[in-house]
Write a structure and sequence with these properties.
The complex is a heterodimer. Chain A is an alpha/beta fold. Chain A has 14 helices and 14 strands. Chain A is 38% helix and 13% strand. The termini of chain A are far apart. Chain B is built from 14 helices and eleven strands. By secondary structure, chain B is α/β, with parallel strands linked by helices. In chain B, helix 2 runs antiparallel to helix 11, helix 4 runs parallel beside helix 11 and helix 11 packs across helix 13. Chain B has three domains: 62 residues, no CATH class; 255 residues, Aspartate Aminotransferase, domain 2; 131 residues, Alpha-Beta Complex (Aspartate Aminotransferase, domain 1). Chain B is 34% helix and 11% strand. The two termini of chain B are 23 Å apart. The relative contact order of chain B is 0.13. Classes of the chains: A alpha/beta, B alpha/beta. At the A-B interface, helix 1, helix 2, helix 3, helix 4 and helix 5 of A face helix 1, helix 2, helix 3, helix 4 and helix 5 of B.
């Protein structure tokens, strides 16, 4: 006979039968679970069932969640030209296959290295991979996302230098600037804005130089590509920071390294990134993956986990979490950061992704981004009244100024099953006529040409 | 010997299969990039065929241990079963392929899911509003403390002291420091509860909040919670709930009803989202009415009859990360609540408490409980009578396929010194009686072994390829640095 639902035996994920419960209660020496709850005063106990819906079966759940999912348009139902810091890229199926293994998916942080050499090896290789992609050797195992990576990097510079001012380019992606402000508020760090050159869209070296001479800064913060999609002149900026003995910090798109020297190779002291382009799905905004790479001299200021090599009782080398004296569970209020759970499974995904692509695959994808984005840009800026307002170089995303209101243009494109780009109004002077367009390796020539046609038709109909 | 890594098995010039385009040549990117600015040398990424990649990582998974493999009684970490259906639902294309810069109206399913989950968490915890934005529990603490600071700023009060019991997670003081607060530590009484007299002594007009974990990380319910709440509020301070141990209380008692003003929960603990070897998690934060204006932006709420992100929060603490929250993780949490239902949640907490007490009772003669009373969802037992250290004891458990419980400095919990030989065991509700009996048998076996063969224990584990790693900095020969490219 099946026990009735009202007795709760079959509810949810219960594993005990009534008989199991009796055996256990007897061993504990009580008659009911209620007796074990006696420290909770009756006056605060919930005297009614939680007001939540009754449990769903797996098939009813599937029905409900599928219906919710159908209320979203996606980059699969529509052609997407959206970027803004996260991009739709090729992700080999190896990533999902490996990341779904329960040994990795359902494990805790590898505090027991003896039984977790597998994940520790992966994280060690992740650090090594990101060290090559970002160009500095000391890498942590992840922070929450690109914006918190930058905020943590900013604090690293303050800790290391003992200074409390940061010079920050105003052309950061707006969300990065907002997160930086939130993170530094309690640290009593002052942010000084560094205007960029409106023509090139890049950091203005003369202004930067003048500001850096005025007062001592802990660090100089830039982003590449910045919020105009423009690639910054990193060697020059690093040199300026270096001369003012400020720590040079950059938030970058890691895919740039496929075509350009890495920011670390260009001299930058702290290189952080949003690693979403390296094998992570868009997921409506997260989870993503922040990574920080730095010089060995600054390693002690890194937030989060670091995997290193130590020795076991037999004298053999083995992997373990190391340098924990930086972390919250050891240093508590003096820790470099509060971060505990980070984004390990995503670091694993990035490791599998880069391993599958390899040197040539990674560089070819980066190359295709450049080629396709520049092809599209050249086609679009040839349209009447359309121009790219910045002269600085770009990678896979560029800004355009159009002879109509951007929201109206995007509405027309949406009707053609396309997310046409990001409307820059709200964070860009003259923004209502400016939009950002991103192109990745996934777009075919036909799709690029179709977009140009739809873009032209939309402009014609709006003028 | 170290297990070989991808760099060790790399073979030059085998990568890049499958990356090509019929119309564009990736090499021609040089036409667009200034010669001076181009990459000139190889990056140094490894190269493998796809089959090698899959085999390599699959073999590495054989040297990893998840809750799918076996019991994981890691105290205060709540390593319960992570339902597979939730993984599948959270990864539906309709969610996974949504770009966060899409027009808000084209992602209504995301807002609907968020609003629904927020409502369920409000009901589960007894709070008035919830933000799903925080990336993990510690990030939730950070957001919660920033809201508390802002609340006092708005009232024109300078309050910058955070009271924290000595048994609290390390993230509590670390988050307090990040928001510019000073920590004062409240000791624990011999009965294992927070010392209220000491708290009283520390209360003054500069105290912003008390951060309390309830049940505490000693496995006990702070039964004076109502009295604590009255004292804290009478002082003009706010009460913060660290939801690390909420798994003991679902459907039984709610933090909101205990008097907490701000709470965070850890979805990987209470709501069964997989821990992923160390994240991603999610740390939703709940607040009472008076703190709603300070929630981070954006907050999803009903606007013009439909769920939508609201950016118009003039008193908000601001943005704490990019976009809206860890959607993929949060969807799993939603699925968990939907498949448990109210009875299932209550039963989960009841069974969690029952399982911990069963373990405590069955081990009491060999490993006595530190506090001689029933525990909540985890038990703190003493290895003080053993001839070996608790550290050695738990490493031996690995040989019998039981993940070690939490110890002093083991990473999750920071105990006061007097609990040096204590082990915090949280079996969780999804372990069966058979598994619990198996675990008890292994704990007892190691305890007996300590009498007759302590050396076997001190050198354990013996079944793993890697022998014991002693986490004593002096014993470390080297920490090899990732080599420079």
């Amino acid at each position: 006979m099946i026990a009735p639902m009202s007795r709760g035996i079959l509810a949810g994920y219960n594993v005990h039968t009534a008989a199991d419960r009796s055996v256990m209660l007897k061993s504990v020496g009580v008659d009911s679970i209620e007796e074990l709850l006696h420290p909770i005063d009756k006056s605060i106990r919930l005297q009614r069932p939680l007001d939540l819906p009754p449990p769903l079966t797996e098939w009813a759940l599937s029905h409900k969640m599928t219906a919710l999912a159908r209320r979203n348009l996606t980059t699969k139902t529509h052609r997407s030209w959206l970027g803004g810091g996260v991009y739709e890229h090729y992700i080999p199926e190896t990533v999902h296959a490996i990341a779904s293994r329960g040994e990795f998916l359902t494990a805790y942080t590898p505090y027991q290295p003896e039984m977790n050499q597998g994940i520790l090896r992966i994280l060690y290789d992740f650090q090594k991979l990101m060290g090559k992609v970002l160009g500095q050797p000391a890498v942590n195992c992840s922070v929450y996302d690109g914006s918190t990576a930058l905020a943590e990097a900013a604090w690293m510079a303050c800790r290391a230098s003992g200074r409390d001012k940061l010079l920050v380019t105003e052309n950061l992606w707006p969300q990065y600037r907002q997160v930086l402000a939130t993170y530094l508020k309690g640290r009593n760090v002052e942010i000084v804005d560094l205007p960029s050159n409106p023509d090139s869209g890049q950091v203005d070296s003369e202004t930067a130089s003048a500001l850096l001479k005025k007062q001592p800064f802990a660090g100089l913060i830039v982003q590449t590509p910045n919020r105009y999609g423009v690639i910054e002149r990193l060697p020059e900026i690093h040199q300026l920071a270096h001369e003012a003995s400020a720590v040079s910090i950059v938030a970058c798109n890691p895919m740039l390294t496929g075509c350009f020297p890495s920011p670390g190779e260009e001299g930058f002291d702290i290189v952080c990134c949003e690693a979403q382009p390296l094998g992570l799905k868009l997921n409506a905004g997260g989870p993503y993956l922040g990574v920080i790479a730095t010089r060995m001299e600054l390693e002690q200021h890194l937030p989060g986990r670091i995997v290193g090599i130590c020795q076991d009782l037999k004298g053999e080398p083995a992997f373990a979490l190391v340098k924990e004296n930086r972390e919250q569970h050891v240093a508590r209020h003096e820790a470099t950061s509060h971060i505990c759970s980070n984004q390990t499974l995503l670091a694993l995904k990035v490791t599998v992704h880069l391993s599958t692509l390899g040197e040539h695959g990674f560089r070819r994808i980066a190359g295709l981004n450049v080629v396709k984005a520049h092809y599209l840009e050249s086609q679009l800026s040839a349209l009447p009244g359309v121009r790219r307002p910045q002269t600085g170089p770009f990678f896979n995303e560029f800004m355009l100024e159009v002879p109509c209101e951007v929201p109206a243009l995007l509405d027309r494109l949406l009707a053609e099953q396309a997310f046409g780009g990001i409307d820059c109004s709200g964070w860009e002077p003259g923004g209502s006529r400016r939009l950002l367009i991103a192109v990745t390796e996934l777009k075919s020539k036909t799709e690029l040409d179709d977009y140009v046609t739809h873009f032209r038709q939309a402009l014609q109909s709006l003028n | 010997m170290l297990i070989p890594g991808i760099f060790d098995i790399s073979r030059p010039n085998v990568s890049g299969n499958g990356v090509f385009d019929p119309d564009f040549d990736p090499e021609s990117h040089t036409e667009w990039i200034d010669a001076k600015a181009r990459r000139k040398h190889s990056i140094g990424l490894p190269e493998l065929s796809e089959h090698e990649v899959v085999r390599h990582f699959t073999n590495l998974s054989h040297q990893a241990y998840g809750v799918d493999n076996g019991p994981y009684p890691l105290g205060s970490c709540t390593m319960k079963y992570n339902p597979k259906r939730n993984d599948a639902m959270a990864q539906l294309d309709g969610f996974a392929d949504v770009h966060p810069h899409q027009p808000a109206a084209t992602m209504q399913g995301v807002w609907d899911a968020f609003l629904e989950l927020q409502g369920y968490i409000e009901e589960l915890t007894g709070m008035d509003a919830v933000t799903l934005q925080p990336a993990a529990g510690a990030h939730g603490e950070f957001a919660g403390l920033l809201m508390i600071r802002k609340y006092f700023e708005k009232k024109g009060e300078k309050r910058d002291i955070v009271l924290i019991p000595d048994s609290a997670h390390g993230t509590n003081p670390a988050s307090a420091a990040m928001v510019g607060c000073q920590c004062k530590i409240v000791p624990t009484t011999p009965q294992g509860l927070m010392d209220i007299e000491e708290m009283d002594r520390l209360l003054d007009e500069r105290v912003a909040t008390l951060m309390l974990t309830n049940p505490s990380t000693l496995g006990l319910f702070e039964k004076n919670i109502e009295q604590i709440a009255v004292k804290i509020h009478r002082n003009g301070s706010l009460l913060y709930y660290d939801g690390a141990n909420l798994n003991a209380l679902m459907g039984l008692v709610r933090p909101g009803d205990m008097g907490f003003d701000v709470i965070h929960i850890n979805t990987h603990k209470t709501l069964a989202t997989p821990h992923g070897s160390g994240g991603p998690g999610a740390g939703p934060v709940g607040v009472k009415e008076h703190l709603i204006p300070y929630l981070p932006v954006p907050n999803v709420r009903m606007r013009d009859g439909r769920a939508a992100p609201d950016y118009d929060l003039p008193d908000s603490i601001g943005r704490i990360k990019t976009y809206f929250g860890h959607t993929e993780v949060l969807l799993r949490a939603l699925c968990y609540l939907l498949t448990q239902g109210p009875e299932g949640l209550k039963q989960a907490s009841e069974n969690a408490v029952l399982n911990a007490n069963y373990l405590q009772a069955k081990l009491a003669d060999l490993l006595p409980p530190i506090f001689d009373q029933p525990c909540m969802h985890e038990c703190l037992i003493s290895g003080g009578d053993l001839k070996i250290s608790a550290f050695d004891f738990v490493k031996r458990l690995i040989d019998f396929k039981v993940h070690p419980p939490t110890l002093v400095g083991a990473g999750c919990v920071h105990f006061a010194k007097e609990y040096d030989a204590a082990m915090l065991i949280e079996p969780t509700e999804t372990e069966t009686l058979t598994t619990l009996d198996y675990m008890i048998e292994q704990f007892r076996r190691v305890a007996s072994e300590a009498e007759i063969a302590p050396f076997t224990i001190e050198t354990a584990p013996h079944s793993t390829d890697t022998a014991k790693i002693v986490k004593d900095e002096a014993a470390w020969v080297s920490v090899l640095e990732p080599e420079r490219h």
